[in-house]
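Thread: quick sanity check before group meeting

JM: Hey all, I'm pulling together slides for Thursday and realized we never actually wrote out the predicted structure for the chain we discussed last week. Dropping the sequence here so it's in one place. If anyone has concerns about the input, flag it before I start.
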Amino acid sequence: MYPEAQTRLARADDMDQVKAILEQYGDYKRMILSANMNAASDGTGGSDMSLEDIFFANEVQLNKDSFEQQFHFGVFYSWLRLKEQEIRNIVWIAECISQQQKDKVNKYTPIY
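JM (edit): ok, ran it. Output follows.
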């Protein structure tokens, strides 16, 4: 993806342009398709995950997978990123409670 796709992404103005750029890459195309299916289901059985939520879930999975190997320093970076996601989850839950949106509290990105 680097460098040509990143420069095109930096120039993208709307979500349709971002989707058109990312659809050229297999992993991102699957994420876009699953986000489109969630949006098309209109809340009737879908998981209501946005594209951003799907990206966060993918990042969490990649960071969890890094603990499966030994003898590398990537686990420290992954641990830090998982802690950042945990903080995001806590902020999300706190914001939902403070805004009286208790039905949306469970829409955080689970870590384990």
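AS: nice. The mean pLDDT is 89. The radius of gyration is 16 Å.
JM: adding both to the slides.
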